[in-house]
Design goal:
Number of domains: 3
Radius of gyration: 24 Å
Number of helices: 12
Distance between the termini: 37 Å
Structural class: alpha+beta
Oligomer: single chain
Helix content: 40-55%
Number of strands: 8
Shape: elongated
Largest sheet: 4 strands, mixed
Length: 300
């Protein structure tokens, strides 16, 4: 570990090389709304007690139910999955479409009686109206709308499947690289194409800002730090959930990698930041040409 001055988080004892990194860590993990997300260093899997903070409730991000302790919330989240909400929304959409079709059919029957239109002509009109209805649903974001999610808000633990998590963890030291490519580059999660780099020499990179609904220029080094911290947090969460389903040797190897990254090994972290930078730069066109991004304003 480097001998330079370290900035220590008073809540979980994790060390950072700058006050800005520590501040970012605090905002993400130790504000009251996020307090259950941070597991103290060398105490993985044990509910955290934060001295001086009055945290009496743990909130489910999906259904907003409150729980008095982290364990109760964890048990609840195993049953309360986003996909249930998605399924409910899908049923509502199908119901709306079905009701619309019934209304169109009724209107066509009345129109046929009033104008005595030939049945074949009526079928053509009916087909066109139904197509227009489907197109309106798509344009209104009911089916295909994809909203870009801001870096740090991806909630990958509830998005990725167990098989995807295991595949990432089994890559050990390359797990971070693979996770960045899967989340920020591939078309599997277009809503997470929220960062990119266009110039290796420039000191700026770009990330999506939800508040202003546009990409903004930010310090490239801070951007890489934020990406590294967010994705390493995900890898730690995957490991906590999946460690007993892994081959013991591979489980030990990914745990060693997590510990080295958590303990601020500057050489390794700087290497990974360079690799992330190249991944984003080499795949910049896949991100920028994403049709969901094309119409979003970019603050140059």
């Amino acid at each position: 570990m480097s001998s330079e001055c370290k900035f220590v988080c008073k809540h979980c004892n994790k060390e950072y090389s700058s006050s800005q990194s520590r501040s970012n860590h605090y905002k993400k993990f130790h504000e009251v709304k996020n307090v259950i997300n941070c597991v103290p260093k060398k105490d993985h899997g044990v509910p955290a007690v934060f001295q001086g903070e009055n945290v009496s409730e743990y909130n489910c991000k999906i259904c907003k139910k409150n729980y008095s302790n982290r364990h109760s919330l964890w048990k609840h989240t195993q049953k309360c999955k986003t996909k249930k909400i998605d399924q409910t929304n899908l049923l509502e959409i199908k119901k709306e479409n079905s009701e619309m079709k019934i209304k169109i059919d009724e209107m066509m029957n009345l129109l046929q009686k009033a104008l005595k239109i030939h049945p074949k002509t009526l079928n053509k009109i009916n087909t066109q109206l139904n197509n227009n209805n489907n197109n309106n649903n798509t344009n209104n974001g009911i089916i295909n709308n994809i909203n870009i999610v801001q870096l740090g808000n991806e909630d990958l633990n509830n998005v990725l499947t167990d098989n995807q998590k295991l595949k990432i963890l089994n890559r050990q030291a390359m797990s971070l690289n693979d996770l960045v490519e899967l989340v920020h580059i591939s078309d599997k999660f277009k809503q997470f194409k929220n960062v990119y780099i266009t110039n290796l020499q420039s000191s700026f990179g770009y990330k999506f800002d939800e508040k202003n609904n546009k990409f903004i220029a930010v310090n490239k080094n801070e951007l890489l730090n934020d990406i590294l911290e967010s994705r390493m947090y995900d890898i730690e969460s995957f490991y906590e959930d999946m460690q007993y389903k892994m081959d013991p040797v591979r489980a030990d190897q990914i745990k060693l990698f997590i510990d080295r990254m958590t303990n601020e090994e500057d050489i390794l972290k700087n290497l990974k930041k360079e690799e992330i930078k190249l991944i984003l730069y080499n795949n910049r066109e896949k991100i920028i040409n994403n049709k969901e991004i094309k119409d979003i304003e970019i603050d140059m």
